[in-house]
Automatic annotation (TrEMBL):
InterPro entries: 6-blade_b-propeller_TolB-like, Sensory_adhesion_molecule, SGL. This is SMP-30/Gluconolactonase/LRE-like region domain-containing protein. Residues 1-26 form the signal peptide. It comes from Lactuca sativa. Residues 42-296 form the SMP-30/Gluconolactonase/LRE-like region domain. It comes from the Eukaryota. Keywords: Membrane, Signal, Transmembrane, Transmembrane helix.
Length: 366
C-alpha cells in the first residue's frame, strides 16, 4: 500500500513543481537582443514596420544599422559626406513618405547640427541634409537631439542645448516651431544632466507633440501647428527622462538611465499618471525606446557613457525587448488552467485512494 500511494502521489508532486516553474517563468526578465558592431555605441533607436526590424544610429559616426530580433545586423547608411565624428542622436521612420530621418550632431562643430533624410527602401540615397540653426538668435547654442514626424512629413527636432524645437517640412526647409518660455521656467538642479534640456520627442495622432526634458524631469505638451506649450503635471517626478515613444493605446513610454516609465492620461495630457515602471541596467546606459509590431516595447542599451569618453572600445550592444502586460496575462491564464487540471487530478487521486482503502477493508473482513 505504501508503495502504491507513493507512486500515485509522484505525478501530483511533479505537477505542483511544474506549476511553480511556470509561475517563475511568468515573472522572468525581459529578453535581450544582442548584436555586434565595432565601436558603434548606438544612441538612437526606431522601428521599421515595412521591413519588421529595428534601426539604430551611432554615437561615434554617421552610421545606421538594421537589427533583427535574432541580432542580425545590416548596414543601411554610412554617410561619408557628413563629418566622420558626427552622431545620429535621434532617428525616426517616416512610413508615409518612405524615409528615415536622422538628427545629425557633429561633435566637433555642434553649430552645424542638421537633419538628414534617407530613402527608406534605398537608404544609401540621401534625400536632403538641412542645417539647423536659430535665425532669430545667433547666440543660441545648437544641440540637435531627437526627432519625430507627423503624417504630412513635417519633422520636429529638439534642441537640448537651448531648449527649443525645430520644424523641418517635407522639402527640407527648417524653421523654429517653439521657443516657449515654459521650457525654461523650472529651475534646473545641479546634476550630470543639467546641461541637457529638451530631449525625447514623439508625435501624437491628435496633433500635438510630447517632449521630455532631461535637466528638470519635466514633460511638455506642444502644439505642432503654433508651438504653444504647457507642462504636463505628473503624480511623481521622473529621473532624467531621455527618449520617449507612444504606444497605439496612447500610453507614453519614457526611458531614463535608471527606469522605463509607463505613463497614461485621461485628459489629453493636461496631466498624466505614472502607473508602472521597469528598473533598467544602468551599467549599459539606456537612452532610447521604441514601439514595434504588436506594441512590443524595445529599449536600447548602447553603453554611450563609454562611447562619450572617446578612447573606449566595444563591439557588443543590446536591445531589451520588454514583455507586454497582455503577454504576462496570457501566462497567468495558462497558470490558472494548469492549477485547475492539478486540482481535478487531486480529486481523482483522492477518489482512487478511497476506493483502495475500501477494497482493502473488505479483504480484511473476508
Amino acid at each position: 500500500m505504501s508503495f502504491t500511494m507513493t507512486m500515485s502521489m509522484f505525478p501530483l508532486t511533479t505537477l505542483i513543481f511544474s506549476l511553480f516553474q511556470i509561475s517563475s517563468l511568468a515573472s522572468s526578465p525581459p529578453d535581450l537582443i544582442n548584436f555586434r558592431s565595432p565601436n558603434l555605441y548606438p544612441e538612437s533607436l526606431s522601428w521599421d514596420p515595412t521591413a519588421q526590424h529595428l534601426i539604430v544610429g551611432s554615437l561615434r559616426h554617421p552610421t545606421l544599422l538594421s537589427v533583427s530580433d535574432a541580432g542580425v545586423i545590416n548596414t543601411l547608411v554610412t554617410d561619408d559626406s557628413i563629418p566622420a565624428n558626427s552622431s545620429f542622436l535621434g532617428i525616426t521612420v517616416d512610413v508615409v513618405h518612405n524615409r528615415i530621418l536622422a538628427a545629425v550632431h557633429p561633435r566637433s562643430q555642434p553649430s552645424n547640427c542638421a537633419l538628414a533624410a534617407y530613402d527608406l527602401h534605398s537608404p544609401h540615397h540621401r534625400l536632403f541634409l538641412t542645417t539647423l540653426h536659430d535665425a532669430a538668435s545667433t547666440n543660441s547654442a545648437s544641440g540637435a537631439n531627437d526627432v519625430t514626424v507627423d503624417f504630412s512629413g513635417n519633422a520636429f527636432v529638439t534642441n537640448s542645448a537651448s531648449n527649443f524645437i525645430w520644424k523641418v517640412d517635407l522639402e527640407g526647409k527648417a524653421s523654429v516651431l517653439s521657443k516657449s518660455k515654459i521650457f525654461t521656467k523650472t529651475p534646473v538642479p545641479d546634476s550630470p544632466y543639467s546641461s541637457c534640456g529638451l530631449n525625447g520627442i514623439a508625435y501624437s495622432s491628435e496633433g500635438y507633440l510630447l517632449v521630455s526634458q532631461s535637466s528638470t524631469g519635466n514633460l511638455y505638451k506642444v502644439d505642432s501647428k503654433d508651438g504653444t506649450a504647457r507642462k504636463i503635471e505628473l503624480n511623481r517626478e521622473l529621473n532624467a527622462p531621455d527618449g520617449i515613444a507612444i504606444r497605439s493605446d496612447g500610453v507614453l513610454l519614457v526611458v531614463s538611465q535608471y527606469k522605463l516609465y509607463f505613463i497614461k492620461s485621461s485628459n489629453s495630457w493636461s496631466d498624466g499618471v505614472v502607473y508602472d515602471e521597469i528598473v533598467l541596467d544602468t551599467r549599459r546606459f539606456p537612452t532610447s525606446v521604441t514601439v514595434g509590431a504588436e506594441d512590443r516595447v524595445y529599449v536600447l542599451y548602447g553603453n554611450v557613457n563609454e562611447g562619450i569618453m572617446g578612447n573606449s572600445q566595444r563591439d557588443e550592444f543590446s536591445i531589451l525587448k520588454v514583455r507586454l502586460e497582455d503577454e504576462s496575462g496570457d501566462d497567468a491564464i495558462w497558470l490558472y488552467v494548469l492549477i485547475g487540471f492539478g486540482f481535478a487530478y487531486f480529486l481523482v487521486w483522492r477518489f482512487q485512494m478511497h476506493q483502495l482503502f475500501t477494497n482493502m477493508d473488505k479483504t480484511k473482513i473476508v
